[in-house]
Design a protein that fits this description.
- The structure is a homodimer of 366-residue chains.
- With 366 residues, the first copy, chain A, is an alpha/beta fold.
- Chain A has 3 domains: 3-77, 434 Repressor (Amino-terminal Domain), CATH 1.10.260.40; 82-180 and 324-351, Response regulator (Rossmann fold), CATH 3.40.50.2300; 182-321, Rossmann fold, CATH 3.40.50.
- Helix content of chain A is 40%, strand content 14%.
- Chain A is built from 13 helices and 12 strands.
- Chain A has helices at 25-32, 36-44, 51-64, 70-77, 93-108, 122-134, 151-158, 182-195, 222-237, 251-254, 256-264, 278-290, 324-339; strands spanning 82-87, 112-117, 139-142, 163-166, 176-180, 201-204, 247-248, 272-275, 300-304, 318-321, 348-351, 354-356.
- A 6-stranded parallel β-sheet of chain A has the order 2-1-3-4-5-11, with helices on both faces.
- In chain A, helix 5 links the parallel strand 1 and strand 2 (112-117).
- Chain A starts with 24 loop residues before the first helix and ends in a 10-residue tail after the last strand.
- Chains A and B meet through helix 4, helix 5, strand 2, helix 6 and helix 12 of A and helix 4, helix 5, strand 2, helix 6 and helix 12 of B.
- Strand 2 (112-117) of chain A pairs antiparallel with strand 2 (112-117) of chain B.
- Chain B binds a DNA duplex (16 and 16 nucleotides) through residues 12-15, 22, 24-26, 34-38, 40-41, 44, 46-50, 53, 68-78.
Chain lengths: 366, 366
DNA sequence: ATGAAAGCGCTAACAT
DNA sequence: ATGTTAGCGCTTTCAT
């Protein structure tokens, strides 16, 4: 046989440690008795190959169990067909849904996903971004842990990788973004409460934040910031003094449920709550139950995100639904476009939220 | 400023398309005026390098903004420090939690995660596995779309990559597995119903399955199979004839809620339901409400998975809680061990489920 | 301790 | 249409 020979000579020290050597284009080429280049062309479906040769090569590949090494390919082409996604926590239904939306688009466009959790901390976010960059992802999707400290994002841009932000924006970074109309959403949601006659309304978020919220203060997450803005403005418009006093951040560190209990009990207790996401709504619901407050008679509750169960509780919960899937999908679409070379100006897409009125709002008790 | 200059000199045909050339060890070596090998040693923290040189190299790397190319490293070492995970659907809370559990362990051990959704179809599962293998992941975590058709899993084993199954097992494949004690769980859950006096009890799963379930039939998902086994055995022990007639599979294709409505209405309606996961429980809950059936007075309901909201509905739902996080984490632990070379016999870890009795079970109406 | 050179598996010029 | 060759960025012998 016209063995091209020498490539089989040495035992290799590399490999996956199971002693087996991966089948390479060279092997296939040898078996099909063509050059490496021709084999590669047939296998990689590029360049020009005669039908007969192509078939011969493919059969050989089949028989040897050839499986292309995507890494080697990336080394020479510079494209990895992989996009990185950094979410706060994949267990959070918001991120799970957004990730799914992104995954579907990515998949269709031929990209795989490397997933990392930042836990909303810039430090682990930095680490995550570091690995993804090292793996030479073609672009990144990130829900930035901070909209203010943009160093991690700058790293990405400096590395020359397209970046699309989702759920949150960041000032001063060259990137597209896909977010929801949080301020408007917050206004509507809060308006429901003020219209019903509430004057003591609390806004609860788990956003990490040291000390209490002060008016005009810059918040780490732009989406929460927007919600807070919508919330306080609406309160102010209703003539409620010191709206910012009703903003409760950092609820995770302190235990959401406990924070909720504090807010809805005592002499100056809130009579209504705006929960910044469905998990917070859950905690508030539990808190209310634990202190014997009925919703909506004793406490009104509205929340962001139409989690699947929000229509099932008694009472069902009035929510501001976000197109979560679409946020992830659209972000992925923008990213793919950038990766493919679109050099247009950066855009920020703002998707509408949708109010779903249910049964958790009533006038306050007198 | 001390611009080092030359790295911008040559145009390169590779790269990320943004015209920028990545900084390589060579560049750093040149800047630090040492050989490539030495620079690599200093950067990669292996081999022997004098302190002074190490420092010089690191400073140069810092200045140039060097970022190791993990792909090139993988090419030569054969290790990618990446593990692949294939789940049914990341949007499903079960998988989101298991993924998080796995991600945490992987992260600690220095591995990244490539995520794919199989949608429980062997075809897209095959595709997903193909890419992950092409990317030379060091090992795979998969919740197999089929416990019966093991070709996709065989591909992995044939490729010499460690494989750990989670949530489901598969016969005849050389792999570890981490599952929950589903049969026992199903027995307990169903027992609650038979003890309460129910005789017409339905089991609902979204597992894809053509035609109705027949006794002894092999099911695609081992976890569902085990639950069905526990369910039918318990009915049989209670003297209920033709237990298998009460097994309703394929509920997703037909619409879970509609399937539920069919089962809980009509002359031979079920008076109790075992939902194979929390999303199904949700649909049953909705179905009951839509046809005006009260839980538990008119219909008893129990389910697998203690989703966060199951304690909040009225009535709260009795569930069999699974250690989902731990399933993913333990699977990742086993995988990491294999990747590190553990050649011991394959194990299947079975984790216990835990019954949480709440308010959704009552005796059937007469 | 450091350097020179080979090679991982692939693609891309450049022949022929 | 096919082959030859060089090279992607790194690690790893093997010298020195």
């Amino acid at each position: 046989m016209g063995e091209h020979g020498s490539e089989h000579a040495s035992s290799n020290t590399h490999g996956n440690g199971n002693g087996r050597r991966e089948v390479t284009v060279s092997d296939v080429a040898a078996a099909a008795r063509v050059s490496k280049a021709t084999a590669a062309r047939a296998l990689g479906d590029y360049g020009a190959v005669s039908d007969s040769v192509r078939e011969r090569v493919q059969r050989a590949a089949e028989e040897l169990g050839y499986r292309a090494n995507a890494l080697a390919r990336t080394m020479t082409t510079g494209r990895s067909n992989t996009i990185g996604i950094v979410v706060g926590d994949i267990e959070n239904p918001f991120f799970a849904q957004a990730t799914r939306g992104a995954a579907d688009i990515a998949d269709t466009a031929g990209f795989d996903l490397i997933l990392s959790n930042s836990d909303e901390e810039t430090e682990s976010e930095a680490k995550a971004i570091g690995v993804q960059l090292a793996k030479r992802v073609d672009g990144l999707l990130v829900a930035p842990a901070s909209s203010v400290d943009i160093r991690n994002l700058r790293t990405i841009v400096d590395a020359g990788r397209p970046l699309v932000l989702f759920d949150r924006v960041a000032e001063g970074i060259e990137a597209d973004a896909v977010i929801a109309a949080n301020r408007t959403g917050a206004r509507k949601l809060t308006g429901l409460l003020t219209s019903a006659g509430h004057r003591r309304i609390a806004f609860i978020s788990t956003l990490l934040h040291t000390d209490g919220y002060r008016s005009g203060e810059v918040l780490g997450s732009s989406s929460v910031a927007e919600r807070v803005a919508g919330f306080t403005t609406t309160l102010a418009e209703a003539g409620i003094p010191r709206p910012e006093a009703w903003v409760r951040l950092n609820a995770r560190a302190d235990g959401v449920e406990r924070a909720a209990v504090e807010l809805i009990t005592g002499p100056d207790a809130a009579t209504a709550v705006v929960a910044s996401d469905s998990r917070i709504a859950l905690a508030v619901f539990r808190a209310a139950r634990s202190v014997g407050l009925r919703i909506p008679e004793d406490l009104s509750l509205v929340a962001f995100d139409d989690a699947d169960w929000t229509g099932l509780t008694t009472p069902s919960i009035t929510v501001m639904s976000q197109p979560i899937h679409e946020i992830g999908a659209e972000a992925a679409r923008l990213l793919v476009r950038r990766i493919r070379g679109d050099g247009g100006p950066f855009v920020t897409k703002v998707l509408d939220q949708r109010l779903i009125e249910r049964e958790s709002v009533a006038p306050p008790r007198l």
